[in-house]
From TrEMBL:
Belongs to the peptidase S54 family. Residues 51-185 form the Peptidase S54 rhomboid domain. The keyword Ribosomal protein does not apply. Keywords: Hydrolase, Membrane, Transmembrane, Transmembrane helix. The chain crosses the membrane at residues 12-33, 53-78, 90-111, 117-137, 144-161, 167-185, 205-226. It is found in: Membrane. InterPro entries: Peptidase_S54_rhomboid_dom, Rhomboid-like_sf, Rhomboid_protease_S54. This is Peptidase, S54 family. It is a multi-pass membrane protein. It holds the Pfam family Rhomboid. Its main location: membrane. GO terms for molecular function: serine-type endopeptidase activity. It comes from Schaalia dentiphila ATCC 17982.
Length: 231
C-alpha cells in the first residue's frame, strides 16, 4: 500500500468527486430529457447500434434512491482508497470495474436469453469494484478483511433477493476490481534499476491495456451473443 501511494499519498479525491459529478449531471439530464436514457443505457439487444453503452450505462441511474445509495458508497469508499492508489490508478480501477460489470451482464445473457432486452443502468458495478479494491488493499496490508467481505456478501445476497437489481453487474464489477487492483499495486512496486519515468510509462501502458482489454472482452461477449441469437 505504501508503494502504491507514492504518487498521491494525500490530497483531494478529485476523481471520486468527478465521477459523482458526472453521475449527478447525467441524472439531471435524463430527468429533463428522458429520451437520453434510451441511447445511453446498456441494453444488450441494442449494443451493435449503441456500443458506447457498455460504459455510459454506468453513469445513469433509475431513481433518486438508486443514485443516492450509489453516490454515498462511492463517496465513502472513493475518499478512502483514491489517495492510496493515486488518481489515475483509481480512475483506471473505476473504468475497468464498470466495464467488468457490463461484460458479466452480456455473458449472463447466454445463460438467460430474456436478459438481452433488459435495460441496465447504475454505478453499482464500479462501486463493487471499489469494494473489491478495499479487500485487496487490506489483504496486502495485513488488515482484517472480515468487514469488507461481510459488506460484499450482504449486498450480493440483497441483489439476488430483490428484483430489478443487476447482481450480474455487481459480480462482474467486483471481480474486475479485485484483478485490476492487484495488477495496479503490483506494477507500482519499485524495481531495482528502473527509473521513475520508465516505471510511470510501464504503469500507464498496463492501465490503458486493462481498459482496452475490458472493451475487447465486452466486444467478444457481444459477438458470441450475436452469433447465438442473431441480430
Amino acid at each position: 500500500m505504501g508503494s502504491a501511494s507514492r504518487a498521491a499519498a494525500t490530497g483531494t479525491p478529485v476523481v471520486t468527486y468527478a465521477m459523482m459529478a458526472i453521475c449527478v449531471l447525467m441524472y439531471v439530464v435524463t430527468l429533463l430529457v428522458p429520451t437520453t436514457k434510451l441511447s445511453l443505457a446498456l441494453v444488450p439487444a441494442r449494443l451493435m447500434a449503441h456500443p458506447w453503452t457498455v460504459l455510459t450505462g454506468a453513469f445513469l441511474h433509475g431513481g433518486i434512491m438508486h443514485i443516492l445509495f450509489n453516490m454515498l458508497s462511492l463517496y465513502w469508499v472513493g475518499r478512502a482508497i483514491e489517495p492510496v492508489l493515486g488518481r489515475w490508478r483509481f480512475l483506471t480501477l473505476y473504468l475497468v470495474s464498470a466495464l467488468g460489470g457490463s461484460a458479466f451482464i452480456l455473458v449472463w445473457c447466454l445463460i438467460q436469453p430474456s436478459e438481452i432486452f433488459v435495460s441496465t443502468v447504475g454505478a453499482s458495478g464500479a462501486v463493487f469494484g471499489l469494494f473489491g479494491a478495499v479487500f485487496v488493499l487490506q489483504r496486502l496490508g495485513g488488515s482484517d478483511t472480515t468487514a469488507i467481505l461481510t459488506l460484499l456478501g450482504i449486498n450480493l445476497v440483497y441483489g439476488f433477493m430483490v428484483s430489478g437489481i443487476s447482481w450480474q453487474g455487481h459480480i462482474g464489477g467486483a471481480i474486475a476490481g479485485v484483478c485490476a487492483t492487484w495488477v495496479l499495486v503490483h506494477m507500482a512496486r519499485p524495481r531495482p534499476g528502473v527509473t521513475q519515468v520508465h516505471q510511470n510509462r510501464r504503469e500507464a501502458v498496463v492501465a490503458l491495456g486493462m481498459i482496452a482489454g475490458m472493451l475487447v472482452l465486452n466486444a467478444l461477449a457481444f459477438r458470441v451473443l450475436y452469433e447465438v441469437y442473431g441480430a
